Structures are given as structure tokens and as C-alpha cells.
UniProtKB/TrEMBL annotation:
This is L-methionine gamma-lyase. InterPro entries: Cys/Met-Metab_PyrdxlP-dep_enz (IPR000277), Cys_met_metab_PP (IPR054542), L-Met_gamma_lys (IPR006237), PyrdxlP-dep_Trfase (IPR015424), PyrdxlP-dep_Trfase_major (IPR015421), PyrdxlP-dep_Trfase_small (IPR015422). Its EC number is 4.4.1.11, 4.4.1.2. GO terms for cellular component: cytoplasm.
Length: 394
């Protein structure tokens, strides 16, 4: 974080935006414009040549979007940041920037369903290979690195089994080989986990989740070194074009102001629900970073400020039908994919987010038919639990 901000909470509210530059407007204005006018033809020439700073066209830069990027760069402790139309826009821009034909991506075993699909697409169309590693030990990582590995991609905690990977360890091994480490930091958000401070190179987000926080926007963010961010802005944004709209950037600016207090409450509520789930006779295998038996528990305590709001668990008996019957009995909790919203959401990964992954690989990732994923919201935890309990007992 920049020196002028000692605390995350303050930076989340003030960083990246100066009211004095915007007629005193407390809230950042939404610059809803496609293009920017030049005073003279020569000024237009200078802007394109890069000899004069200033805006040209909203696919190349927009003041509302820039305010968001500057704020997130500060929050991730990064030199710069780029905002995208979706989390997948961010993931694809990063992977395309770091690879070319015949390169190799080493990916954590267990990854967001569409990231998995993208790896398959890159392999089929562009001969960019990939491998999955559990990344539990340095040895495991070293053994999977090839001469053509140009990117290590890590998701932690891993969706949906909440296994945690030690980011300091991954960064250490990657440094030996000079390979950049990309972290999908969506689940913890920048408030609970700082990949760059742990030695990783790039942090990316589906801002759709905790950063937006209110279930009303789809967006993505990438934070890292200025040289890297300039490169993905040129390719991923300027030429491929998955730019964020000014209004969506504004929604994220608003969401970020309350990120710390929301994450604190999401975590507190999840800790309570986790305790109750572990005690219930119909429930087994509760996956939550703070549980001692959770894979990567020690790394979680070391690198995460709090556990976050996502819990997965299995029903003792039955498979898909029983899991679906349980979901159908819920009244307050909404059945939906996505996570990190103020509303508590519940999903069945095997038939929803992870349905695209072949069954064998899906099971290797721990996504069984009786696995249920819960994104604990900001309602009273007692009301959330009462709904889960009636559905389990009913
Ligand atoms: C949702 C999600 C994504 C994809 O983000 P979108 O905003 O939906 O495109 C990527 N990674 C993780 C971990 C996610 O949860």
C-alpha cells in the first residue's frame, strides 16, 4: 500500500480519487462517454503519439475507470491495475499475455470452471499446454515445472473445496525458475490476502464477487507491475476489448468503500455457520479455511487475515438428488451461483459451476455429487442458520 495510507480501511475509501479535481464531487463522477474531444488537431496528434497525457477514447482509458484502477492498485500493493468487463476477461487477458504457442501453464489442481475451460481452449486452438498440481510441497511444484513453463496460476482458497495453497512457498519455487505467479484472489479479496506482499507477481479478481459485493455487476481486475499492466491494457483491453463500462466501475468504487467491514462480517457469520454445520448429524466434511482438518489450514492462518465467507459441505447420505432436495427446501437462502454478495447464496457445484469439467477430473478436485457451496451473506447468522437447519431437518 502507498505510504500515505497506513490502513486498508482508509485507502479503500480515499485512494485513487481526489475530489478537488472533480468540482468537489464527493462521489466519483460517472464519465459516461465513448470519446473525448481534442482542443486542436495537434492535440489529437500528441495524445496518439503519447507525448501528451489525456484521454482519447473510452476503450483506451476513462476517468471513472482510472479512479477504480488506482484504488485497487493501492489496495493490492501493486504499481498498477487494469479493470475488465468480467473476471474471465481478466483471466484471459493475463493468460494470453504470458503465453504463446508451445508454452506451458502450471495451474493449481482445482480452479474456477471457466478458467479450466479456457485452458482447454488455449490448448486445442493454440497448443499452449497445461498441467495441474496440488502444490502441497515445493517438490510437487518443482517436478511439474518444464523448460517451457511461462506461468504459474494459483487459485486459493480453491473453489469450492476451500483448500488453501501456501503462496509464499509457490513464489519461492517460481523465483528459482524466473516464472511469474498469478493468483486468483477472488475468494479472499484484497482485504484478507495480499499475494504481491507474499512474493507473487500478479493478483486478479472476479470483482463480481466480494469487491462489488451487492450482486449487481460483473467485472474483473488485474494488479501487478506497471510494465505488465501496460502490456495487458494494450492487448487485452485495447485490441481484444473486454473493457469495463464507466457505470460498472463506479459500482465497484462504491463497493470497495465498505469492503473491509463487509469482509469482517462475512467472516464472522461464516465462523458461526461453520460451527453449527460441523455439529449437525446430516452433515459431513465441512470445508472452511479455519478448520484444522482443512487442507492448507496452516497456510490459511499464515496468509489470510480471516477465513472469508464461503463454506462447502457434504451431506452424510445420498448424491445429487438429496443435495437438490435440500436446496429446494431453503426459504431465505437463494439458490444461485456467484458469491460474496450481501445475500446468502447456495449452489450445487457438480451440476452448476463445475458441470463442464469431466467427471474424473471433477472428482479429483473433490467436487462430489453431495457437495454444496454456501456463500454466507450479511443477514443475521441466526436467521441463516435457522433456514439451513429447517432444510436439513425437514
Ligand atoms: C466468478 C469467478 C471467476 C470468473 O469471474 P466472472 O466475473 O464471473 O467472469 C474467476 N475466478 C473465480 C475464483 C471466481 O469465483
Amino acid at each position: 500500500m502507498k505510504k500515505e495510507y497506513k490502513h486498508f480501511e482508509t485507502a479503500a475509501i480515499h485512494a485513487g480519487y481526489d475530489t478537488k479535481k472533480h468540482l468537489g464531487s464527493l462521489s466519483a463522477p460517472i464519465y459516461q462517454t465513448s470519446t473525448f474531444t481534442f482542443d486542436t488537431a495537434e492535440q489529437g496528434e500528441a495524445r496518439f503519439a503519447g507525448t501528451e497525457e489525456g484521454y482519447i477514447y473510452s476503450r483506451l482509458g476513462n476517468p471513472t475507470v482510472q479512479a477504480l484502477e488506482e484504488k485497487v492498485a493501492v489496495l493490492e500493493g501493486a504499481e498498477d491495475c487494469a479493470a475488465f468487463a468480467s473476471g474471465m476477461g481478466a483471466v484471459s487477458a493475463v493468460l494470453i499475455e504470458l503465453t504463446k504457442t508451445h508454452d506451458h501453464i502450471l495451474c493449481s489442481l482445482g480452479v474456477y470452471g471457466c478458467t479450466f475451460d479456457l485452458l482447454v481452449l488455449l490448448k486445442e486452438k493454440y497448443a499452449i499446454d497445461y498441467d495441474f498440481s496440488p502444490m502441497e510441497t515445493e517438490e510437487q511444484i518443482r517436478n511439474s515445472i518444464r523448460p517451457e513453463t511461462t506461468c504459474i496460476f494459483v487459485e486459493t482458497p480453491i473453489n469450492p473445496t476451500m483448500r488453501v495453497i501456501d503462496l509464499e512457498m509457490v513464489a519461492r519455487v517460481a523465483k528459482e525458475h524466473g516464472i511469474p505467479v498469478v493468483v486468483d484472489n477472488t475468494f479472499p479479496s484484497p482485504y484478507l490476502q495480499s499475494p504481491l506482499a507474499l512474493g507473487c507477481d500478479i493478483a486478479l479478481h472476479s470483482a463480481t464477487k466480494y469487491i462489488g459485493g451487492h450482486g449487481d455487476v460483473v467485472a474483473g481486475l488485474v494488479a501487478g507491475k506497471s510494465s505488465f499492466i501496460s502490456a495487458i491494457k494494450k492487448n487485452g483491453l485495447k485490441d481484444i476489448g473486454s473493457i469495463i463500462a464507466p457505470f460498472d466501475a463506479w459500482l465497484l468504487l462504491r463497493g470497495l468503500k465498505t469492503l473491509p467491514i463487509r469482509m469482517d462480517r462475512h467472516s464472522e457469520n461464516a465462523i458461526k455457520i461453520n460451527e453449527q454445520l460441523k455439529k449437525h448429524p446430516r452433515v459431513k466434511n465441512v470445508y472452511f479455511p479455519w478448520n484444522e482438518e482443512n487442507a492448507g489450514h496452516e497456510a490459511a492462518i499464515k496468509q489470510m487475515k480471516q477465513p472469508g465467507g464461503v463454506i462447502s459441505f457434504e451431506l452424510q447420505e445420498g448424491g445429487k438428488q438429496e443435495a437438490q432436495a435440500f436446496l429446494n427446501k431453503l426459504q431465505l437462502i437463494k439458490i444461485a451461483v456467484s458469491l460474496g454478495d450481501v445475500e446468502t447464496l447456495i449452489s450445487h457445484p457438480a451440476s452448476m459451476t463445475h458441470a463442464v469439467i469431466p467427471e474424473k477430473e471433477r472428482r479429483a478436485m473433490g467436487v462430489t455429487d453431495q457437495l454444496i457451496r454456501l456463500s454466507v451473506g450479511l443477514e443475521s447468522w441466526e436467521d441463516i442458520w435457522a433456514d439451513i437447519e429447517q432444510a436439513l431437518n425437514g
